[in-house]
């Protein structure tokens, strides 16, 4: 497959495309001329994104309103794509959310939905679209993991665990499918300026500059062109994620627990401000 620049003949399927990182991928692929299939549960927002991309880039954009945290969600998505009649060349398996707090205080149903969306749907959607890529001899899969996937994350235990799954699952597929011409990438953003923290129900404290969605997408595209298995967006995120791998896991978890216990008390500036900025307090996971 050609470098990730000219994609006029390609179709990209993006989950979680109605906002944040997914919407930035939609914008970037539309700008490169790709046809799009955008998926998310909230239909009005999805339609707004689709209409804007059609207007600004003149590309063909389809939308599928689907709740991927439901057991049947991925199959509903695949059926809708089949009805549209498109082969998917690029899959951005991006939809996800987090929960934060002492594990026993988080509603069990919320954590269950988190696992269904961040883990089960990511795996199932890959299963539904990868065979077609293998049969056609090429394709691209970007799975959105997180810097949280590199270590245990107290007070975000399910989220960190889910992103560790995405990281290892993606790297394994990268190794398996290179020889089939299918590129698989685990995308690991750190704190990024999206609706994520609002959905988390918490304004997280973090050190370093919050990254923009455009920076995250650019990091993914560079990594694909270089054939990388995973990419951590941002130099500081790269250093902190890799530093934690050199230390005993229990020690890292204990230190993180202390930081996040205090951090959860500190209300900081919203992660929704219009420009990237430095959040107050200590660095934490995303
Ligand atoms: N922002 C960060 O700091 C950060 C850092 C590392 C990793 N990530 C990861 O990046 C990915 C995108 O998050 P974001 O930061 O862009 O957050 P976001 O702005 O909240 O976007 C989340 C997207 O996922 C969709 N979504 C939520 N629940 C869904 C469901 N049940 N089924 C299908 N789609 C669903 C949302 O659609 P609706 O609007 O319709 O609900 C929205 O389009 C997530 O996997 C997240 O874990 C984010």
From TrEMBL:
Keyword presence, Oxidoreductase: yes
A Pfam match: adh_short
Superkingdom classification of source: Bacteria
Species whose genome carries this gene: Frankia umida
UniProt-listed InterPro entries: NAD(P)-bd_dom_sf (IPR036291), SDR_fam (IPR002347)
Family: Belongs to the short-chain dehydrogenases/reductases (SDR) family.
Swiss-Prot/TrEMBL keywords: Oxidoreductase
Record protein name field: SDR family oxidoreductase
PANTHER family reported in the protein's UniProt record: DEHYDROGENASE/REDUCTASE SDR FAMILY MEMBER 7B, SHORT-CHAIN DEHYDROGENASE-RELATED
């Amino acid at each position: 497959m050609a470098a990730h620049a000219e994609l006029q003949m390609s179709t990209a399927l993006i989950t979680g495309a109605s906002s944040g990182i997914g919407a930035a991928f939609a914008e970037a692929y539309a700008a490169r001329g790709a046809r799009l299939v955008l998926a998310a549960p909230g239909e009005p927002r999805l339609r707004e994104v689709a209409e804007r991309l059609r207007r600004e880039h003149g590309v063909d954009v389809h939308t599928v309103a689907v709740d991927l945290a439901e057991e049947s969600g991925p199959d509903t998505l695949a059926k809708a794509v089949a009805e549209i009649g498109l082969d998917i060349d690029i899959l951005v398996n991006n939809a996800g959310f987090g929960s934060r707090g002492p594990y026993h205080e988080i509603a069990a149903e919320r954590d269950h939905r988190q696992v269904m969306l961040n883990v089960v749907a990511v795996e199932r959607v890959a299963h539904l679209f990868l065979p077609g890529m293998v049969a056609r001899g090429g394709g691209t899969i970007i799975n959105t993991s997180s810097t949280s996937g590199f270590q245990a994350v107290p007070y975000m235990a399910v989220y960190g665990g889910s992103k560790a799954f995405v990281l290892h699952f993606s790297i394994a597929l990268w190794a398996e499918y290179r020889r089939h011409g299918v590129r698989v990438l685990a995308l690991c953003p750190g704190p990024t300026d999206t609706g994520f923290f609002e959905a988390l129900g918490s304004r997280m404290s973090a050190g370093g500059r919050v990254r923009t969605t455009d920076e995250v997408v650019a990091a993914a595209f560079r990594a694909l062109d270089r054939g990388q298995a995973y990419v951590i967006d941002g130099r500081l995120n790269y250093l902190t994620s890799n530093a934690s791998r050199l230390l005993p896991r229990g020690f890292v978890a204990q230190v993180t627990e202390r930081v996040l216990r205090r951090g959860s008390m500190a209300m900081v500036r919203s992660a929704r401000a219009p420009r990237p900025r430095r959040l107050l307090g200590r660095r934490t996971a995303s």
